[in-house]
Write a structure and sequence with these properties.
Protein name (chains A, B): Pantoate--beta-alanine ligase
Number of strands of chain A: 8
Pfam families (chains A, B): Pantoate_ligase (PF02569)
Oligomer: homodimer
Largest sheet of chain A: 3 strands, antiparallel
Keywords (chains A, B): ATP-binding, Ligase, Nucleotide-binding, Pantothenate biosynthesis
Family (chains A, B): Belongs to the pantothenate synthetase family.
CATH architecture of the largest domain in chain A: 3-Layer(aba) Sandwich
Pathway (chains A, B): Cofactor biosynthesis; (R)-pantothenate biosynthesis; (R)-pantothenate from (R)-pantoate and beta-alanine: step 1/1
Strand order of the largest sheet of chain A: 6-7-8
Radius of gyration of chain A: 20 Å
CATH superfamily of the largest domain in chain A: HUPs
Order of helices and strands of chain A: HEHEHEHHEHEHHHEEE
């Protein structure tokens, strides 16, 4: 989707290590935005992106590793990707789509009902155009990785999925193209999601296996931060809402009551950073003056263990 | 879908002329049958089919043409075709599907809402498994050909679609695996659909271009036959219902009011042969004793003309 950051570059670096030729696709896919979502305001920075890719390509060449540099960047028009009917983001939607249910309706899909239909559809097209031996997706969008794996299996697509670890800022915030909307105040509070998930992970690592024991710790962190912000003045606080904190099966993404150690689980969450109630002089603001609500997601894989 | 007849063999013969290797798939795909449709009773004759294919393979080898014989028959299990979730024929349906709208909801799709979702889904899987340079479909299922062409274009599948003319019985009835359900009496009346479409085609060939002028002739034929049958005794008549007679755009399948000569049109129809009201001694019956309602479809392409 462009608006490249270190997370995207990490995908390319991983691909370059394992393949002779790397293809990069940049396409802000309209069908994965709901009709009331932020397609129009989504950052589109193709020129800057191309600069970053050229620089990375140079680095990869200089490194002289066995892996290939960037063979091509595919940045198609919408008429190429949707050649017959204009892209439709409505439900039920006219056009040619891939639907993956019930996976696409869970977690992120609850608040974004057309999102994964758009993702699966555009990925099917891209896979057919490029015919890659391996495709690289970031761990940050864990539901996307599960859905793409399911699509590849169900449709017998001849490609391997590689999941690349989430790139993070120094304080642990997952990198995202939408982070540019966060000014310093919302940026500082936005780390709460990571902190909540880490608290739950710690419980798992200490041997807890029941949903309640594990998620209680995450909710403690989130609720405490939420109360702190609510108690602050409009000029000091940054309010947010928790959309979900989930403990789910890694293949079906269905919520689990008790983690099967041999199977592991996916701990994930989404919060919405609300627009600031009031701004202060001298404060560093995000794109849009911190008036844009920003959804942040993150996750931790609770690996299977032999205990 | 198996239950092979001359129509299927014609597809293979055409494929053998144009390709070194021919792959045949036989799979009665559950997701294209509605929950109340005839999946259980649909003829499944794999052993007989394999015999016919072996015979044809021998003929192709003997002919010694440049084209290849049958390389392989792919007759997968449902667990292979639907590896994660069991096939679901309900609406909205759980699973991984390809949907092609609005095409899939027109004509046949009106009475069979999940049909083309199932067809597109299974074809996407088969195309990915076999990765054919060319795929062969029969003209008889004209809506299927339009939908497959749309799917290939929209998803950038790397395969060419070849449409093979409909194979017909001597009197013109389109061959279909479901024809075995027609005993002599329903068989004789079933030809009405072909006759109706031919009457309309004649009008087009004589220069008529308006929908009303063209379709009136088809409805005349159908209505006359329908009245004749209704007036006969239960032991003599074979009643039927017209589902639709359509004059549609070749690419969108939307109904047209006036045919654009440079674009042509698709004339198509569907009738339902009702179970016989009463049977006579000595009469030859179809499979199921002529108690199974049988849907018949047929079509004629009104080619573009330079007039």
């Amino acid at each position: 989707m462009g608006a490249l950051h270190e997370g995207h570059l990490s995908l390319i670096r991983h691909a370059a290590k394992e393949n002779d030729k790397v293809f990069v696709t940049i396409y802000v896919n309209p069908t994965q935005f709901g009709v009331h979502e932020d397609l129009d305001s989504y950052p589109k920075t193709l020129e800057k992106d191309m600069g970053m890719l050229q620089k990375l390509d140079g680095e990869l060449k200089d490194a002289g590793t066995s892996g290939g540099p960037i063979e091509a960047v595919f940045a198609p028009t919408t008429k190429t990707m949707y050649p017959t009917l204009p892209p439709d983001s409505s439900l039920p939607g006219t056009g040619s789509f891939v639907t993956i249910t019930p996976l696409a309706g869970l977690l992120e899909g609850k608040s974004r009902p057309v999102f994964f239909r758009g993702v699966a559809t555009v990925c099917m097209k891209l896979f057919n155009i490029v015919q890659p031996e391996r495709v690289y997706f970031g761990q940050k969008d864990v539901q996307q990785t599960v859905i793409i794996k399911r699509m590849i299996r169900d449709f017998h697509l001849n490609t391997d999925v590689r999941i690349v670890p989430t790139e993070r800022e120094k304080d642990g915030l997952a990198m995202s193209s939408r982070n540019v909307y966060l000014g310093e105040r919302r940026r500082r509070v936005g780390i709460v999601l990571r902190q909540a998930l880490r608290a739950a992970e710690a419980a798992y690592k200490m041997g807890k296996r029941s949903r309640d024991d594990i998620l209680a710790l995450a909710w403690d962190v989130a609720n405490r931060m939420s109360m702190e912000q609510d108690e602050m003045s409009a000029e000091a606080g940054a309010r947010f809402e928790v959309d979900y904190i989930s403990l789910a099966d890694p293949d079906t993404l269905e919520e689990v009551a008790v983690i099967d150690s041999e199977h592991g689980a996916v701990l994930s969450g989404a919060i919405k950073m609300l627009p600031l109630d009031a701004v202060r002089d001298g404060e560093v603001h995000g794109v849009g003056g911190d008036k844009v609500p920003v959804r942040l997601i993150d996750n931790i894989i609770l690996e299977r263990s032999d205990d």
